[in-house]
From TrEMBL:
The keyword Kinase applies. The keyword DNA-binding does not apply. Residues 287-378 form the Histidine kinase domain. This is histidine kinase. Residues 65-135 form a coiled coil. It comes from the Bacteria. GO terms for cellular component: membrane. It is an enzyme of class 2 (transferase). It catalyses: ATP + protein L-histidine = ADP + protein N-phospho-L-histidine.
């Protein structure tokens, strides 16, 4: 599954890269079209000015040519009044102006045709720019939508894989806990009961021959039985303290800290505000398990000398667990779902089920703060501890 996710991520990145390259190509085409539009607009403006100048010159030459023809007609009608030189000059002037006018009209027509061609080209370029801009907009929208969806799919698959791994680790953690309890029972009460049974058999033989030892044997049996009972109660208390059902969370945590301080070098301080508040049993168990797991981590990993558990019972339940230990990187630990690092993830899952939020602040050499906030109005999903 991990390999499939890596392949999917690689394909996703390739698709995104290709689309992004397409976006860049469209952008370059649009920019080139805009530059060409500006060039054509400049050429068209220059050509329009030239056409206007030629038209003015044509109009002026037409007037001159008309006057020259009129002059030639007058001279021709009254040729006897004019010399041959005047007649020749009038003819040449009219002829030259006629030739010039024909050239100007041809130039005017050519420039008008060229201007019309540039105008059509400008319209075409503007349409291309508009289409390119629309295409770029649609591609950007599609790109963003596709990227978000592709990443969403990848993220969902990754979450699915993580949930699957967490499921496996939950089962694994349950098996580890069962082995631990079985080992404690085997090494503690079971061994003691085996010794007691063996001792009872030996005492039975001695009692049959020496009745004076009956009281001594019974005293030893009672002493050993009490020891076994104490050990069994300790194991039961670790699994589910009876005081949490009978007395509630606060007395249970206070007793937990007292017993911890008696048996360990780390000194725990318990502070509670709003002690009289009533809590949902599931939330009480959740908070107790958070404390239990946090203190175990403190004992195993933190190298701390002091810890403070602060519980505030108001509209929002706030639980702070702080130590002065060596600290760690929460991101690395939360990203590792191996069995030995599963405790923090399990804590987060418990708080989520209770409708709350758990935050961990820690850095190397700065100790650790675990903060839990649960709204008393929130109803977490029902579960059994």
């Amino acid at each position: 599954m991990k390999l499939e996710l890596e392949n999917l991520e690689q394909i996703t990145n390739q698709v995104i890269s290709s689309i992004e390259q397409g976006k860049n190509d469209i952008f370059e085409i649009t920019e080139k079209a805009r530059k060409e539009e500006e060039t054509v607009k400049y050429q068209l403006a220059s050509l329009s000015s030239e056409v206007s100048a030629v038209i003015n010159e044509v109009d002026s030459t037409e007037l001159k040519e008309k006057k020259a023809r009129q002059r030639l007609m007058d001279v021709s009608r009254k040729f006897e009044e004019h010399s041959q030189e005047n007649i020749q000059a009038a003819y040449e002037t009219a002829h030259n102006l006629n030739i010039k006018l024909a050239g100007l009209r041809q130039k005017e027509q050519s420039l008008i045709e060229k201007r019309s061609e540039l105008e059509r080209r400008l319209v075409s370029i503007r349409e291309m720019v508009k289409k390119a801009e629309n295409l770029a907009t649609h591609v950007s929208i599609a790109f963003d939508y596709l990227v978000n969806n592709l990443y969403s799919v990848s993220h969902q698959l990754a979450n699915f894989q993580q949930a699957k791994n967490i499921g496996y680790k939950i089962i694994q953690a349950q098996e580890i806990e069962r082995k631990r309890v079985a080992r404690e029972i085997h090494d503690g009460p079971a061994q003691s009961l085996a010794k007691l049974t063996l001792a009872a058999e030996l005492w039975e033989e001695e009692i049959s021959t020496d009745s004076s030892k009956v009281r001594e044997c019974l005293t030893d049996i009672k002493k050993e039985s009490r020891s076994i009972l104490t050990e069994i109660r300790r194991i039961i208390h670790q699994l589910r303290p009876m005081t949490i059902d009978d007395l509630g969370l606060v007395p249970t945590l206070r007793r937990f800290c007292e017993e911890f301080n008696e048996n360990n070098n780390i000194q725990l301080e318990f502070i509670c505000f709003g002690e009289g508040s009533k809590l949902d049993k599931n939330i009480e168990v959740t908070l107790y398990r958070i404390v239990q797991e946090s203190v175990q981590n403190m004992l195993k990993h933190s190298q701390a000398t002091r810890g403070v558990i602060k519980l505030q019972l108001s509209k929002k339940l706030t639980l702070n667990i702080r130590d002065n230990g060596k600290g760690f990187c929460p991101e690395e630990v939360l990203g590792d779902i191996s069995a030995e690092k599963f405790g923090l993830l399990g804590m987060k899952e418990r708080v989520n089920l209770a409708g709350g939020e758990l935050n961990i602040k820690s850095s190397l050499g700065q100790g650790t703060l675990i903060n839990v906030v649960i709204d008393k109005k929130q109803q977490g999903e029902e579960y059994h501890d």
